[in-house]
Design brief:
Layout lengths: L1 E3 L5 E3 L5 H34 L14 E4 L2 E4 L2 H13 L4 H10 L9 E2 L2 E2 L4 H9 L10 E3 L2 E2 L14 H17 L15 E3 L6 E6 L2 E7 H4 L8 E3 H12 L4 H4 L5 H22 L8 H30 L2 H12 L8 H14 E10 L5 E10 L4 E9 L9 E6 L14 H17 L1
Parallel strand pairs: 9-13
Antiparallel strand pairs: 1-2, 3-4, 5-6, 7-8, 10-11, 11-12, 13-14, 14-15, 15-16
């Protein structure tokens, strides 16, 4: 059974009056045509507005920190909240921690204040979307639909709320937290959490806190019984020893080449991809090539997304050059390790993560002694590295009377070219380290 509701109600049942049915089909076709025409006009109008975005206001739907008055955009009181979010993110705070801080201080949310009778609170997702929004640096990005851009970003469309350096520094901090692991917020701020790797199997090393006893660094795989021998290294002594050596590393010693040239190449590639995408999209009306065009466009969209991610990474890296980042980290790690507050340790941890990619550690048990021995390779993000031997000695087994020593591979007579990230080389180094301790 078919029922037509407009322009008049007609019910079609067998046997069907063909004349009435033909009128119904014509009416349905006309409705579809009108709908298609309106849709096309709407797309054309929206596309025209987006092309004029540099000179005219496209839409009144604006970010929460911007108001429109008399056709002009201006920052409102929420802009201060957004700036604070960026400062907290740059200092290493996660989005959940930022949201919790804002809620604790009763900072007003953007948009509606209640939902279904309950007050709206800040969430990690809200904070994340604001920190990632390029509207914060004034860019308007035209979209055809979610995830698909309709054209090039329009610079200086919105009033800026932060500068480029702050924006990209925050992106670097967000990406860095995702890369090394956010970690569980506990009572202790572990300086190298998320960075330390077991040289024996490439697995993670973790801080193991047991009640009132000082923490040890242990293998996660050993703790979970995955066939790795159980070894432990006093965390406080390891941190002090490594901090003492890192504070001696000057920024000029590890300074890498700036990424400007690579950034220029990536931007040139982006322009080439955009040109190709437009050319292929212009051929979509050809029914004979539609499958090939769809396949090619899918490939170009993937390349474009990868390209933009690489550009964002390099822009974030350029926002805080390695030289400047390490100068800050070096100053912080050189502070008195006995007097660190949790706040200071958090700053040190964030500074180290901006500069260090990983710390590969080989913990070596020394039989019949009270010595804990380890080799550590500090891998900086620009490819440079440093290797150290760390030894912790205790006369009675009590951590309070323990002392530590640290020296470079060269000073210890170990091969400079040895790479602890290679399991085979790490195994050879283990025997050399035992011999090194025996000599002392």
């Amino acid at each position: 059974m078919i029922v037509q509701l407009s322009p008049v109600v007609i019910e079609f049942k067998k046997p069907v009056d063909m004349t009435s049915l033909m009128f119904a089909i014509v009416e349905l076709s006309r409705g579809h045509s009108e709908s298609a025409i309106k849709s096309e006009r709407s797309r054309a109008s929206w596309g025209r507005k987006q092309k004029e975005a540099g000179a005219k206001l496209v839409t009144k739907k604006l970010p929460g920190w911007i108001n429109c008055a008399n056709g002009k955009l201006a920052l409102n009181s929420h802009a201060a909240t957004v700036r604070r979010m960026f400062l907290l993110a740059c200092s290493g705070e996660g989005t959940q921690a930022i949201a919790l801080k804002l809620n604790t201080e009763n900072v007003p949310v953007m948009g509606r204040e209640t939902y279904r009778g309950k007050p709206v609170k800040w969430s990690g997702a809200n904070v994340w979307h604001i920190l990632r929004s390029r509207a914060c640096i004034g860019e308007y990005i035209p979209y055809k639909r979610r995830g698909k851009m309709a054209g090039q970003p329009v610079a200086d469309y919105f009033p800026r709320v932060v500068d480029d350096v702050t924006y990209h520094a925050a992106q670097a901090a967000i990406k860095n937290r995702g890369r090394v692991g956010r970690g569980r917020k506990g009572k202790h701020v572990n300086l190298f959490a998320g960075l330390i790797v077991d040289a024996r199997d490439g697995g993670s090393l973790t801080y193991w806190h047991t009640g009132k006893h000082p923490a040890n660094i242990i293998s996660v795989n050993a703790k979970e019984g995955k066939g790795i021998a159980w070894v432990a290294l006093p965390a406080d002594l390891f941190e002090r020893a490594l901090r003492s050596k890192l504070s001696e590393v000057k920024a000029d010693d590890i300074n890498g080449t700036p990424p400007a040239s690579k950034l220029e190449l990536l931007k040139a590639e982006r322009d080439e991809i955009d040109t190709l995408t437009k050319a292929w999209e212009a051929k979509m009306d050809n029914p004979l090539l539609v499958n090939r065009i769809a396949e090619k466009l899918a490939e170009l969209y993937v390349r474009r997304n990868q390209n933009r991610e690489e550009i964002a990474d390099l822009e974030a890296e350029a926002a805080i050059p390695m030289h400047d980042a390490w100068e800050e980290a070096r100053t912080l790690v050189g502070m008195n390790a006995h007097d660190d507050t949790d706040e200071v340790r958090q700053r040190i941890k964030n500074a180290l993560r901006r500069c260090i990619e990983s710390v590969t550690v080989l913990i070596v048990p020394v039989p019949n002694t009270r010595t804990k021995l380890a080799a550590a390779r500090v891998q900086f993000r620009n490819g440079r590295h440093r290797e150290y031997v760390i030894a912790a000695h205790s006369a009675s087994g009590n951590r309070k009377d323990a002392t530590w020593e640290a020296e470079s591979f060269a000073d210890a007579g170990l091969p400079d070219g040895a790479d602890l990230r290679d399991a085979d080389q790490a195994k050879k180094l283990e025997a050399l380290l035992v011999k090194h301790t025996a000599k002392k």
